[in-house]
Design goal:
The complex is a heterotrimer. By secondary structure, chain A is an alpha+beta fold. Chain A contains eleven helices and ten strands. In chain A, strand 1 and strand 2 form a beta hairpin. Chain A is elongated and about 95 Å long. Chain B is globular. The chains are: A alpha+beta, B mainly alpha, C mainly alpha. The structure holds heme-A (2 copies), dinuclear copper ion and copper (II) ion (CU).
């Protein structure tokens, strides 16, 4: 019996020690903080852990003493008291009360107050605004001001399905790797706006101490100021359906200079893509490009083979919608056509018009119509998609 | 507090009604869902039909059992099984039940306040640089800014206008208030053992209840055909119809119970000392009344 | 307390036998037995589901359970455990013991009581049926949104959500009926001379539970009704395009959900002091202080709900309000802890199984409560929220505080209910296995949470592997040790050493004045409490 309590106490001491030595070894505690907010959070957390641990040990000690000493088997005779009766006893009951209020509202309450005010101060002195949009199951990032304004991209999980299904060795950053991380300059206060396209997600990078819900139709905000260059990994933290566990958020913090170069490079890329939308594509090029788009964006639900997972996710192979025409004689978009579904979504099917560019949409639609066991034969030019927006 | 002079507490004999009611509810719920399942799985032909049947069978079972159960209670009551002690249990039970109904309506009033005070103004007040609702004003009544929701486009009704308070709703308020008076007057009659006053009072109450419901039905029709006010009309439509709808449902139940009590009074049930059945229904009716006042003030008027 | 009990021993068997006895019964003991049996079965069902989950989480990668099924299993695990295991267990005790403890002939509204129980099996069917239907290609399985039904995920979800909505409706009606019955019984059925301030603590715990149920369950019913109409009838409660707000659902849900956690524990806080008192052979410490604390907890519980969604982005004053009010709950709970410990302090303790569970319960629930206090801090909660830290917190409160508390009650009252002593050795073994395996299951989860593992994910990054493996192995040990519990109960019900009327040397209260087992109709004539 006593051994059990000692064991438990030991484990808890270990927690306490882990909190104590938090700055030396983070394995048992929050990851190393790299923003002022995360640092503050860690301090608050350590302090609270110590306080509660101390309370716990006191309570435990009293109980163990009583269990060891006040036993019938040791012949201990029961006392008779039933509650505070004299004035002095009432006084002694009120003292712990006062201590408690002190712990709750002074010792823990005041630092918590300052942290909250700091966390919610998103606008003051913000040097940059980034918009983060959650959708099932990927993050989209958009730079809202400054040089980077207009840069916009989707960030997909890159861990191969074979690793998830245990067919091949798992990589170092298993489930925490993406194709396009959000790139941020260090030492700048970045105001992060959050919203979502379908259900609630939560953008969370543990090393930043920032975690905020992305709610469809609403704008929420938080802020980060990364103080050390590096790659920081987190995950979506609000249950958002089947792919919730496969929706990492990765941020690459780089020095100011490097960030500027990255912005320039991105802008150039965007121009080439825009040019691509105006040129005439061949069917083979579209199908080849579409395969990549499909596997990155659509295969989670419709599967790589196009077989889907009915009844939740329809098969695209042999789909009536895919077989039907997209446009009427005047070139207008037909309702509930293949392209309409891809642009505007329906139910669980996301609307892709805000996410993919014209080339990608034209390519993926062409791909679906001419691969995955379908052979409709026609194709869609990026310029046609552009005209429909 | 408990009274013991009257001896033993009446414990009813075993009964199958509750079990069958539960099965009926199960059948109704799963039938409803199956009928929805058919919508989603057009390919599964065998899903067509059984859902509706299950709902009907379930509802019949529930209604039949409630009738038998209440009939049993009435016969036990008339058989003199219920003394003061049992009577007190029923009273406490009814009070607690009405409290739970209050909480149920509170949820919908809560939703109304939340939308009016928090969500609608908030949607209108996002940072103007980044908001996606540039010209949404956020004033109440509101049918929302519109937009794409889970793949379905929602456009607020163009010709929408809210329900005016000082027409039918005001008349309905008067009707319900006077029905509260008539039922109390009937109670006085019962206490004085004046059966004629009791029956007339109850009859008037039932009549007022039915008029209220008829006006309410007319109002709904008006809303749908002329005001562009439907269940789908955003925040206002949702809260308006859910609140008034559940209230109307409770008025319907209350009216049915009043009719039962009226018939029992005509048959000569109830004595000045012993009439929990009457009082329970009267309390319920007053509760429905008070909820309406809340509705009138917060849904129609302010 | 002294009393003059005249238990009538003439058992007139005026009830049907066989299956019909159970379907139709209006007897509080029969109904209590059904509640407790149902609860035990559902505990095994819910536990089985989560063992599948733990097995999947044994290693990174997807092995046994696909993500869709995973999401269904966790949500239904929670709904089953909370609504059909823990709550019915407490109601079962209320049915069995309240009339005996307050000297009543039966519950106040026996037919309603029967209905309250028989609503539960249909509700359980509605929760679990979708798994089976999905196998036949109908629908896409059970609710996959977690037990919290968050919109818009639940608006988007499949038929499982509708099943769960109706299940919650039935469970809600059942709880409201049960609560009406308990409130009326306590108000109206007490033995002469038993004033409110002489009520057994268990009755106080349940009275406040029942008030909370009456105040909050209908709100949940309203919330899921709005969800139903949003899903199928085009309303816009939870939808920004119509002026609604997904967060409105969270407000409504947690207005119920937070009081719910006290609903689960208040009955336990009620009978636990009675157990402590019995086995320390010393009167309960601070009866009045405990009663007032229970009231304070009940009152505070309905004004702190938003601490479950600090990260949705609330105005600063709201954050501060919900943080400080949540912290305030630790004050009445500290009073309770103080009283419990003072009850055993300088007692003459012996450690039969119920006492082992009771003492272990104080310590483990203490951990759960203290970690709850840490969660209440908005700043740090950004980090803890929706990680395994929270999962560990609420299993310390729900499993240790709830289920282990109930187990203490089962061992305490089983001899009274069956008339036989259970196997003490097995009981002790069950306690030690449970306590150790429980800690090994959930302590690693605290560290997982701190290190950043989100909850509700079927697959995880490599750095979380070791802790998950410990947790899974321990969970299986924990699960298997519950088979001892089941075995012990069954064999105790079937026979064994006869139990005396008083059973425990230090037992106090009216229930111990009746024979073990008590006659079918007890207290047909009420005892007088002086
Ligand atoms: C029975 C169940 C139960 C109980 C009793 C509690 C008790 C408490 N809980 Fe817990 N909680 C849950 C079940 C429970 N909880 C569940 C199920 C969830 C997750 C739901 C979900 O998302 O799915 C949750 C989540 C949860 C959160 C949200 C976390 C998040 O998602 O981010 C928070 C935040 O404030 C919280 C706080 C508390 C607090 C302050 C208490 C307090 O009542 C604790 C009070 C007790 C003590 C403080 C300890 C005893 C006192 C002493 C030993 C004396 C000395 C003490 C001091 C001086 C402080 N809980
Ligand atoms: C009263 C409530 C209660 C109880 C008793 C439990 C009991 C247990 N819970 Fe549960 N749990 C919740 C309430 C509860 N839980 C809630 C509310 C959630 C949140 C859900 C959500 O996110 O929405 C949750 C979520 C939850 C998770 C997180 C899932 C996730 O987020 O991905 C985990 C993970 O480990 C877990 C584990 C366990 C374990 C190991 C037990 C064990 O204690 C169970 C032990 C019992 C048994 C195992 C059954 C008996 C034994 C047998 C039947 C043996 C025979 C069978 C075999 C050998 C196969 N629970
Ligand atoms: Cu996105 Cu979870
Ligand atoms: Cu809570």
């Amino acid at each position: 019996m006593v051994m059990q309590f000692i064991r438990k106490a030991g484990l808890f001491l270990a927690t306490a020690m882990a909190s104590f030595s938090a700055h030396a070894d983070y394995a048992w505690n929050f990851p190393k903080p790299v923003t002022p907010m995360a640092l503050d959070t860690l301090h608050v957390h350590n302090k609270f852990m110590l306080i509660t641990m101390a309370i716990f040990l006191v309570v435990l000690a009293i109980m163990i003493y009583s269990i060891v000493v006040h036993r019938k088997s040791k012949g201990y005779k029961a006392a008779k008291f039933t509650g505070p009766s004299t004035k002095s006893q009432v006084f002694w009951t009120l003292v712990p009360f006062a201590i408690l209020l002190y712990i709750d509202f002074i010792l823990m309450g005041i630092p918590a107050y300052h942290s909250v005010v700091m966390m919610e101060d998103t606008k003051n002195e913000a040097q940059m605004v980034v918009k983060v949009t959650g959708s099932q199951w990927r993050w989209q990032y958009e730079y809202m001001d400054g040089d980077a304004q207009g840069i916009k991209f989707v960030s997909n999980l890159t861990t191969p399905q074979d690793q998830i299904e245990n067919k091949i060795e798992k990589g170092e950053n298993y489930l925490l790797e993406v194709d396009n991380p959000l790139v941020l300059p260090v030492d700048k206060k970045v105001r992060v706006l959050l919203t979502a396209n379908d259900v609630i997600h939560n953008w969370w990078i543990p090393a930043f101490g920032a975690s905020r819900d992305a709610i469809p139709g609403f704008l929420r905000e938080t802020w980060v100021k990364v103080e050390e260059p590096g790659t920081y990994r987190g995950q979506c933290k609000e249950l958002c359906g089947k792919g919730h566990g496969f929706m990492p958020a990765v941020v690459k913090a780089v020095p100011e200079e490097e960030f500027k170069q990255w912005v320039v490079a991105q802008k150039e890329q965007m121009e080439t893509a825009a040019a691509g939308a105006d040129k005439e594509w061949t069917k083979d090029d579209l199908v080849a490009h579409g395969k990549g788009v499909y596997e990155k964006n659509c295969a989670v639900c419709h599967q790589v083979t196009g077989a889907g997972l009915p009844p939740a996710f329809p098969a695209l192979t042999g789909s009536k919608i895919v077989a039907a025409p997209n446009l009427d004689e005047d070139g207008k978009l037909l309702k509930d056509s293949h392209l309409d579904r891809v642009l505007n979504g329906k139910g669980v099917m996301p609307a892709w018009k805000g996410t993919l560019n014209d080339t990608d949409i034209a390519a993926v639609v062409t791909y679906e119509r001419n691969a995955l066991g379908n052979s409709v034969g026609d194709m869609l030019q990026p310029s046609q998609v552009k005209a429909l927006r | 507090m408990a009274t013991h002079t009257e001896g033993q507490y009446f414990v009813p004999t075993p009964s199958l009604y509750p079990f069958i009611i539960s099965l009926g509810l199960l059948s109704m719920a799963s039938g409803f869902i199956l009928s929805l399942a058919h919508e989603r799985h057009k390919d599964l032909g065998y899903l067509q039909g059984p859902g509706e049947w299950m709902m009907i069978v379930g509802a019949v079972a529930v209604i039949a059992m409630i009738f038998r159960w209440m009939g049993k209670v009435i016969s036990e009551s008339e058989g003199g099984m219920y003394k003061k002690w049992e009577d007190k249990s029923f009273r406490w039970g009814m009070i607690v039940f009405i409290c739970s109904e209050v909480a149920f309506f509170a949820a919908f009033f809560g939703a109304l306040f939340y939308m009016r005070v928090i969500s609608v103004p908030e949607i209108a007040a996002f940072d103007p640089d980044y908001t996606m609702y540039k010209d949404f004003l956020g004033t109440w009544p509101s049918t929302g800014p519109g937009g794409l929701v889970l793949g379905t486009e929602y456009t607020p009704p163009a010709n929408f206008s809210p329900m005016a308070a000082w027409g039918i709703p005001a008349i309905n308020t008067l009707i319900l208030l006077s029905s509260g008076v008539t039922v109390t007057w009937a109670h006085w009659g019962l206490l004085k053992n004046n059966r004629k006053q009791l029956v007339i009072g109850l009859f008037l109450t039932v009549l007022l209840g039915i008029i209220f419901l008829a006006l309410q039905a007319y109002e709904y029709h008006h809303a749908y055909t002329e005001l562009g006010l439907t269940l789908n009309a955003g925040a206002y439509g949702s809260t308006f119809f859910m609140l008034t709808g559940f209230h109307g449902f409770h008025v319907t139940l209350g009216t049915i119970m009043l009719i039962v009590i009226l018939l029992r009074s005509i048959k000569g049930h109830f004595t000045p000392q012993h009439h929990f059945g009457f009082e329970g229904v009267a309390w319920y009716w007053h509760f429905v009344d008070v909820v309406w006042l809340g509705l009138f003030i917060f849904v129609y008027w302010l | 307390m002294s009393y003059s009990a005249t238990a009538s021993h003439d058992e007139h068997h005026d009830h049907p036998t066989g299956m019909m006895r159970w379907l139709t019964t209006t007897n509080h003991k029969d109904i209590g037995t059904m509640y407790l049996t149902f609860s035990l079965i559902m505990f095994l069902v819910g536990g089985f589901m989560i063992l599948c989950v733990r097995a999947e989480l044994f290693q990174p990668g997807l092995q046994l359970v696909q993500p869709e099924l995973f999401n269904q299993l966790i949500g239904v695990h929670a709904l089953v455990m909370i609504f059909t295991a823990l709550m019915p267990a407490a109601t079962g005790f209320a049915n069995w013991m309240l009339p005996l403890q307050i000297g009543a002939p039966d519950m106040a509204l026996p037919r309603l009581n029967n209905w309250g129980f028989w609503l539960l099996p249909p509700a359980a069917i509605l929760l679990t049926l979708p798994f089976t239907l999905a196998m036949f290609g109908i629908g896409d399985g059970a609710i996959a949104t977690g037990w919290t039904f968050y919109t818009p995920l639940s608006v988007q979800g499949g038929l499982g959500v509708d099943f769960a909505i109706f299940s919650v409706h039935l469970l809600g009606i059942s709880s409201v009926m049960g609560s009406i019955n308990i409130i009326v019984t306590i108000f109206n059925m007490r033995a002469p001379g038993m004033t409110m301030m002489k009520l057994p603590m268990f009755a106080w715990g349940w009275l406040i539970t029942a008030f909370l149920l009456i105040a909050t369950i209908p709100v949940l019913a309203g919330a899921v009704t709005m969800l139903l109409t949003d899903r199928h009838f085009g309303t816009h409660f939870f939808d920004a395009a119509g002026g609604g707000d997904p967060i409105l659902f969270q407000h409504l849900f947690w207005f119920f959900g937070h009081p719910e956690v006290y609903i689960l524990l208040l009955p336990v806080w009620g009978f636990m002091p009675q157990i402590l008192q019995t086995f320390s052979r010393k009167p309960m410490y601070g009866y009045k202080a405990q009663v007032y604390s229970l009231w304070a907890i009940g009152a505070l519980s309905v004004v702190v709900w938003a601490h479950h969604f600090f990260t949705v982005g609330m105005p600063v004053p709201a954050l501060l309000y919900f943080m400080y009010s949540t912290m305030a709950i630790s004050v009445p709970l500290a009073v309770l802890f103080f009283c419990w410990i003072a009850t055993i302090w300088r007692g003459s303790m012996s450690f039969e199984t119920p006492m082992l569970f009771a003492v272990g319960w104080i310590i483990l629930f203490g951990i759960g409560g203290l970690t709850g206090l840490v969660l209440a801090d908005v700043a740090a909660d950004a980090q803890y929220h929706h990680t395994y830290f929270v999962v560990a917190h609420f299993h310390y409160t729900l499993f240790a505080g709830g289920i282990m508390g109930i187990m203490a009650g089962v061992y305490y009252w089983l001899p009274k209910m069956t008339g036989h002593m259970y196997n003490e050795k097995l009981g002790k073994l069950h306690f030690w296995l449970t306590a150790i395996a429980f800690n090994l299951t959930f302590i690693p989860q605290f560290f997982l949470g701190l290190a950043g593992m989100p909850r509700r994910i079927p697959d995880y990054a490599l750095q979380f592997t070791e802790f998950n493996q410990i947790s899974t192995i321990a969970a299986f040990v924990l699960g298997l040790s519950q088979l001892l519990f089941v075995y012990n109960i069954i064999s105790c019900a079937r026979g064994g050493k006869k139990a005396t009327d008083k059973v425990w040397e230090g037992a106090e209260g009216l229930e111990w004045t009746l024979p073990s087992p008590p006659p079918y109709h007890s207290f047909t004539e009420q005892p007088v409490v002086k």
